[in-house]
Write a structure and sequence with these properties.
The complex is a heterodimer of chains A (115) and B (109). Chain A is mostly beta strands. In chain A, 0% of the residues lie in helices and 49% in strands. Chain A contains no helices and eleven strands. In chain A, strands 2, 4, 5, 6, 9, 10 and 11 form a seven-stranded mixed beta sheet that branches. Chain B contains no helices and eleven strands. The chains are: A mainly beta (115), B mainly beta (109). Chains A and B meet through strand 5 and strand 10 of A and strand 4, strand 5 and strand 9 of B.
Chain lengths: 115, 109
C-alpha cells in the first residue's frame, strides 16, 4: 500500500471550480482506478485505465475527467459539472498478469469538500 | 455487469464471539473474490482473498468460503477482538472489481 500515494489528503473547493486529485504509484502496476465513497455506501467506480493513454468510464463518470500520460500517474479532475462532489476519493492500482497480482491496492484517499 | 450484494449492513458481536458476513454475486465468470477491511477515514486494506478454483481459505482467525454453484462467498472471523471493529467490503471480479456496500462490524468488549 505504501507504493500508492494520493494528494492532497484534504481538499476544499468552491462551487464552480475545477480541482485535480493526484494519484501516483511506484509498484509498476498496469491498471489504475478511481473510486468515490460516500458515507454508508460502497465504492463506486469513476474511471479506470489499463494502459497508458487509454481509459474507460466507470459507473459514475459524469462530471469527472482523467488522463493517463504515464504508467505511474492517473490524476482525476472534478469539474464544475459534478453537482455533488463532496466525498472521499480513493485511487487504486493493480497488476494485470494474474495470480496474487490480481489484488487491487488502494491509496490513502483524498477527502474533497465543496464549500 | 456484475452485481454484488452484501449482508448484513451492520453487525455487533461480543468480544470472543464469531462474526459472519455474506456476499452474493451474479456473474458466474467472476473468478477472484477479495475481502477488504476499512477503518474510519483510512484506505481499504486486503485481509483475505479466494479464487474460484478454491472452496475455502483460512488465515489465523479469518476464513473465507466460496460456493460457486450458489454464487455466494462468506467471511468468517473467529475470536473477535475490539480491533476487528471496522467496515468490511467484499468484491467479485473477473476484470473489473465490483464491491459490496459494506458491513460495519462492532466488537463489544
Amino acid at each position: 500500500d505504501g507504493g500508492i500515494t494520493q494528494s492532497p489528503k484534504y481538499l476544499f473547493r468552491k462551487e464552480g471550480q475545477n480541482v485535480t486529485l493526484s494519484c501516483e504509484q511506484n509498484l509498476n502496476h498496469d491498471a489504475m482506478y478511481w473510486y468515490r465513497q460516500d458515507p454508508g455506501q460502497g465504492l463506486r467506480l469513476i474511471y479506470y485505465s489499463q494502459i497508458v493513454n487509454d481509459f474507460q468510464k466507470g459507473d459514475i463518470a459524469e462530471g469527472y475527467s482523467v488522463s493517463r500520460e504515464k504508467k505511474e500517474s492517473f490524476p482525476l479532475t472534478v469539474t464544475s459539472a459534478q453537482k455533488n462532489p463532496t466525498a472521499f476519493y480513493l485511487c487504486a492500482s493493480r497488476r494485470l498478469a494474474g495470480g496474487p497480482s490480481d489484488t487491487q491496492y488502494f491509496g490513502p484517499g483524498t477527502r474533497l469538500t465543496v464549500l | 455487469g456484475e452485481n454484488v450484494e452484501q449482508h448484513p449492513s451492520t453487525l455487533s458481536v461480543q468480544e470472543g464471539d464469531s462474526a459472519v458476513i455474506k456476499c452474493t454475486y451474479s456473474d458466474s465468470a467472476s473468478n477472484y473474490f477479495p475481502w477488504y477491511k476499512q477503518e474510519l477515514g483510512k484506505r481499504p486494506q486486503l485481509i483475505i482473498d479466494i479464487r474460484s478454483n478454491v472452496g475455502e481459505k483460512k488465515d489465523q482467525r479469518i476464513a473465507v468460503t466460496l460456493n460457486k454453484t450458489a454464487k455466494h462467498f462468506s467471511l468468517h472471523i473467529t475470536e473477535t477482538q475490539p480491533e476487528d471493529s471496522a467496515v468490511y467490503f467484499c468484491a467479485a471480479t473477473r476484470h473489473q472489481f465490483y464491491f459490496g456496500t459494506g458491513t460495519s462490524l462492532t466488537v463489544i468488549p
